[in-house]
Amino acid sequence: MAAALQGEWSLDHNENYDDFLKAAGMGAMKRTMAVKLGGSLTITPLGDAKLKVKTVNGPKTKEREIPIGVEFEDEGVDGATAKGKFVFENGKMVGNFITGKGKKLAISREIQNGLLVQTMNFDGTECKRFYKKK
Question: Any idea where the Lipocalin/cytosolic fatty-acid binding domain is (predicted)?
């Protein structure tokens, strides 16, 4: 499944992203900017059990290596350290995390109608981000 997700993707549109960021504790001014800014996502396989994922949201770039099926720590959307893991199931890359503040964060990435759809749920508030292949 990693093969379908790999490549460079440009943000096309969002659904409910403002509410998601608000639930994560982001202030109104930052949310307004984040929702309006474009973004990109680059996924590169690093062998059988690891992906390199680069996300660009406006001026902020985050690049990390993600082990598949192995628990790891990363910065959560609320700024706290989150702990969890990604796996591939039912054609999706699925991650479930618990932040240092005890909040649940679920992320899935899948291909739908030629778009990479990233669904994120932060403690009950869900959003979707749709990316087109570059």
Answer: 6-133
DSSP string, the chain: -HHHH-EEEEEEEEESHHHHHHHTT--HHHHHHHHHS-EEEEEEE-SSSEEEEEEEETTEEEEEEEEBSS-EEEE-TTSSEEEEEEEEETTEEEEEEEETTS-EEEEEEEEETTEEEEEEEETTEEEEEEEEE-
pLDDT, tens only, 51-85: 999 999 878 899 999 999 999 998 877 677 899 99
Residue 125's domain spans which residues?
Answer: 2-133
Q: What is the pLDDT of residues 88-120, one digit of tens each?
A: 998 899 999 998 889 999 999 999 999 999 999
Residue 3: pLDDT above 90?
no
Question: DSSP secondary structure string, 21-37?
Answer: HHHTT--HHHHHHHHHS
- Would you say the pTM of this structure is higher than 0.90? yes
Domain count, the chain: 1
Spatial separation of the C-alpha atoms in residues 107 and 98, rounded to whole Å: 12
